[in-house]
Amino acid sequence: MEETLSMKIRVLRIINRFNLGGPTYNVAYLSKYLDERLETLLVGGMKDESEGSSAYILDELGLETRLISNMHRSIKPSADWKAYRELRQIIREYKP
Question: In angstroms, rounded to a whole number, what is the distance separating the alpha carbons of residues 16 and 48?
Answer without folding.
Answer: 11
